[in-house]
Structure to design on (572 residues):
């Protein structure tokens, strides 16, 4: 996705939040902020890809503060929230046992996101309210049909916490007789889940886990490892979670590979790009 | 005031809000945002003066959109809110008729500010709650003593709406047998009051009105007219309203001129700079 004008203030809001999490030293913060405004000043133009700019910002913060996981506490909170709601979510989806309910749970998991919604968003209310809402743009039927003819699925994970609900969907996917490979970040960035985070919540029990080989926010084709590029190219279909992966995938050449994005629309640019409303839940075949 | 790291995201948040008010054309918005991130990228460093950077941003938005008063509706709303609360405020301050109560009313007027607090802040609740609160940093005694020996007062106005409450304080100041001159903006910028705005609410009935000769956010010594510079230099004392003027005055050489800043602390950088808390009310002798 190309940047929208609203992305510029959001980059700096998120940079401020990440800086606040990464260090308490004000003199370090202003030095890094100087560097970040220069990055945004030189990178932000209407041809720029949003998750590529975001990746540069968050790498700069990690690199310059020496804090390689600023969101570590937020990621733990994400898990706590997910496990707290897991019994309720399980009850809801097992009542009808439909693929759509599992998909919705995975999307609702995408609300556990401190990066996009800001650290003050009321996530707990968001989870419950969103399980009750319809999916605004719903290609679940296409997803199900594609699953039926696929042998393997590449699942691009997004945030920690969220992966607890992804696990439910992935177990369901396996009823369609597919091999599922889940891609996670090589190193921490924002509140994204790493391979280690996934092992911690037992995702390795239900799928093969692979690293994207990098710490980019969402997928960046030029950034991922050669090994992961091969996995991506060989996947029969892709299920992608969250904004960063949407931003990256819509800037890639996908050929005729079926790619489904599952996300909660946590900003106006994504809403405009997809053609839905802010905070809508979406299952979109790209 | 030199910029703090938090100023960078705030500049772009405010730029986005001003752009949203100035034009509906998204292609214009991203073009101007590109220019603004370049301005911030080149101007933002720890020696930069905050209201000078803000002035460049808002001038760019006016210039490039061709909209010379993006906040015109917000300014009208500011007046509406002020006049709605005027009877209540008058009742409170006339109950004890102390200078401090008039000063507090003028500070509470400073809450009617869409630029600093964002367009979604609940201003109406802010007004009532703040009239009940003590002034956190209170140099009203020094202000009163200085008034007693002064012949003329230069009053640096801030926002539209707010000036309705300034009028109450200015009438009170005249009991100290001083001539009051109120400085307003030459042209619109943000929701700042212009000479025309001041005449509209009858401020000319209680004071001489002058223009700063420019549209800077707060006072910028190098930017004001020769005529206004003379008025500033000849003033026995200065009463300054709001953040922008605080930011400008603290970056100027004031000699031994008594300068009092009256403001509600609408951001963390100002809170840190003064040494008080966010949203505190302040009467500070610089």
């Amino acid at each position: 996705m190309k940047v929208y004008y609203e992305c510029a203030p959001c980059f700096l809001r998120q940079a401020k939040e990440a800086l606040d999490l990464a260090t308490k030293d004000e003199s370090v913060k202003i030095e890094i902020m100087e560097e970040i405004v220069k990055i945004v000043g030189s990178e932000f133009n209407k041809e720029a890809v949003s998750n590529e700019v975001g990746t540069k910002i968050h790498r700069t913060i990690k690199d310059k503060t020496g804090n390689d996981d600023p969101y570590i506490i937020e990621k733990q909170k994400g898990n706590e929230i997910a496990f707290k709601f897991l019994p309720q979510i399980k009850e809801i989806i097992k009542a009808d046992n439909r693929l759509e309910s599992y998909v919705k749970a995975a999307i609702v998991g995408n609300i556990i996101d401190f990066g996009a919604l800001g650290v003050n968003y009321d996530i707990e209310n968001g989870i419950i309210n969103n399980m009750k809402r319809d999916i605004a743009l719903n290609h679940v039927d296409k997803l199900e049909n594609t699953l039926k003819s696929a042998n393997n699925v590449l699942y691009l994970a997004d945030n920690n916490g969220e992966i607890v609900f992804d696990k439910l969907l992935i177990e369901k996917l396996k009823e369609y007789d597919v091999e599922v490979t889940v891609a996670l970040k090589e190193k921490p960035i924002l509140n994204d889940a790493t391979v280690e985070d996934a092992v911690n919540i037992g995702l390795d029990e239900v799928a093969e886990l692979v690293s994207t080989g990098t710490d980019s926010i969402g997928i960046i084709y030029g950034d991922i490892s050669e090994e992961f590029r091969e996995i991506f190219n060989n996947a029969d279909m892709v299920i992608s979670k969250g904004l960063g992966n949407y931003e990256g995938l819509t800037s890639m050449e996908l050929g005729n590979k079926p790619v489904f994005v599952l996300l909660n629309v946590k900003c106006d640019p994504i809403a405009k790009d997809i053609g839905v409303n802010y905070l809508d839940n979406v299952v979109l075949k790209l």
Notes: Chain B touches chain A through 28 residues (CB under 8 Å). Strands of chain B lie at 137-138, 152-156, 179-184, 208-211, 237-241, 259-264, 281-285. The first strand of chain B starts at residue 137 and ends at 138. The first helix of chain B runs from residue 7 to 22.
